Amino acid sequence: MEYIKTRAELRGAFDVTHEVAKRKVLRFLDGHTRNFIEKCPFLLIGSQDASGNGDVSPKGDFPGFVKILDEKTLAIPDRPGNNRLDTWENIIENPGVGLIFMIPGMNETLRINGQARLTLDKTLCSQMQVNNRPAKAVLIVKILEVYMHCAKAFIRSKLWSPDTWAPRADMPTLGQILKDHADLSETASEFDEILDEAYRNSLW
Length: 204
Prior knowledge:
The protein is α+β, with helices and mostly antiparallel strands.
């Protein structure tokens, strides 16, 4: 198998970029993009460490959980998790991030590229509390690019169409998967109970 090695080779294999795709990129939030973020309950954060090793991490909470500090700055709260801290460690080494914001049922997404830093500022963490539990930390993102992304991927995948979803019973539980991946001493059902307890009591 041969691989593409140059930008010229890549561009030669595709049509010219549509003019709207070039012109749609903003450098700040406007009314439309603010409205999208305020209604968004879920996003993905792409990051890389200093060696270029990539990671994508999901973040989700109540709609509007991402705080707009100003037209070029976002604050994203961190909630209790598994403490791997892959994204946060990457950002310490390499501040470049890519964000994709998703609203259930909406096929278009909002994309933001920027530079990020992590803070433990007590005032900001407290402002982003849920159920009187402050954010563990807050990611501050300085916006470099912001633009809407078209619906083709969601239309192709029929992501929001329940009639296309595989039955949940066709897939093993996370406890069953981790039993094999992590060589757990617990049974699959025991670890599923541990996960269920964590979901009930430590989302925030």
